[in-house]
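FORM 7B: Structural annotation worksheet

SECTION A. Query
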Amino acid sequence: MRKDEGISTPTPTTAIFGDALSAGSAVTALLRAGFPDSDVYAVGVLEGRTPDLRNFLDSLGIPGVDTVYYNNCFQDGAVLLIVRTQTTCEERSALEVMLRHGGILPPSCEFRSHAVQ
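SECTION B. Predicted structure
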């Protein structure tokens, strides 16, 4: 768990996918890798007008710069995967799986893609 002044909380690890099929294959791979289904979430707008989801994403602990980026991606039909990770090892594993299945990291995580690959 990440620790901040003695308090530990799960950290959301995120990636955006251009389509629901790629996101679905990543979810399947995450579950096979041992992540519990209660820690894997998919967010997207399948049809109709896209609402502003920045407040919702912010409430999940996603950084502000990423919420703006993701909110814009939803306009194009993208699907966001969120994995609650407890350790840096879990975070690295989740990122590897999501990248392998076509996930795109948000602006705040771009530097991590080089460390994972």
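SECTION C. Observations
Residues 20-32 form the longest helix (13 residues). The chain has one domain: 2-108.

SECTION D. Sign-off
Analyst initials: ____
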